[in-house]
Amino acid sequence: MDQPSPSRSNNPYDLDGTTFDAERYLEKLLKDYTLKQIMDTETSIVRETQSLHSDMQTLVYENYNKFISATDTIRKMKTDFKQMETDMNLLKTKMESINTFSQNITGTLQGTRTQMSKLSEKHSLLSRLQFLSSLPAKLKTLLEDENYSEAVNEYMHAEKVFKQYGHQPSFQGIKQDCETIIKNLKEKLKEDFKSGKSAKSITETGELLLKLGEQPKDLADGMLQSSTQRLHEQIIMLQDQKERDMIEFVDMGIEGFLTDLTIVVTSYHDMFLREILEEERDDFHDNCTRQLNNFLNKNVDEYLSLIQDRVESETGYGGDTEIMLRGLDRLHRRLLAMKNMYQGVEINRNAMDIIISAAHQLCKVHQKNLKDHFSDNLSSLRLSLVSVKSDTNSLNLNELVSNLYVSTIEKAKGVLQDLLVFLQTEWSFNIKAEFKGSLCIDGIRENLLVEYLRHISKLMGSFADLNTSSSPPNLLLVLSKTCLELDQNGVHMLMSLVDELYDIESENSATLTHETEISASMRETAQLLLDSYVRLQGNNISQMLRKSVETRDWLNCLEPRSVRAVMKRVVEELTNIEKIVESFYDSTGGNGTRTSASSDSSRKTHFSAITPKQQFRTTWSNYTPSQLESTYASNIHKLFSEKVEIFTSVEFTKVSIITGIIKIGLKTLLECIRLRTFSKFGLQQVQVDAHFLQMNLWRFVTDENMVNLLLDEILGSAVHRCLESVLMEPNAVEIICERG
Amino acid sequence: MDLSFPNASLASKTCSDTNNLIYGLEFQSRSLCSQVAESNEVRFFMATQSLQPNNQIHLVKVDDDLKLQAKVFSYDLGEVWKLNSSPHNPDSLLACFSKQKLGSAQILTQTSLLTLPQDDEVEEKSGEFAKFSKIEILDTEIYGNEVKTTEFHPTDEKTLATVVDSKIVIFDRTTGQSRIAAEIAGKNPTNFTTGKWSQHHQGNQFIACQDTCVRSYDIREQNLCAWQIEDAHANNVRDLDCNPNKQCHFVTGGDDSSLKVWDSRMLGNKPVFSRTDHSHWIWSVRFNTFHDQLILSSSSDCKVLLTCAGSVSSEVQSDSGEEMEEQTKGKIADGLLQTFDQHEDSVYCVEWSNVDPWLFASLSYDGRLTISRVPKQFKYQILF
Question: Taking the model in full, what pTM does it have?
Answer without folding.
Answer: 0.66
